[in-house]
Amino acid sequence: xxxxxxxxxxxxxxxxxxYAGSAEGQAxxxxxxxxxxxxxxxxxxxxxxxxxxVEGQAYYQIPTAVWVAPSQGFGGNLGFGIATPxxxxxxxxxxxxxxxxxxxxxxxxxxxAGRRLSF
Length: 119
What we know:
Layout: E1 9-33, E2 44-73, E3 76-83, E4 86-103, E5 109-118
């Protein structure tokens, strides 16, 4: 019924939309770092772990007014409408990432590093 107009008069509608949702996940990656051109040397193992969580909310109120003219033209009624969206949205993310690499013998040392970001 696209293009359908109601009978002549003034119509007011107030539409409200609300959404809330979240998503989370994990990822891991392991690689061996080797010096360029090295063939028979042991590499340095590097592991990366990440946990990500995203949350979002949105609310919109859309007051709408429609006026349909009482007279007809070209077989139909002329109508005018206005809609004014008012609202807010909020998105937050939390990322926890860690990296660990181990230097092979003779040092045999493990170095952990991590960072937590929230915004």
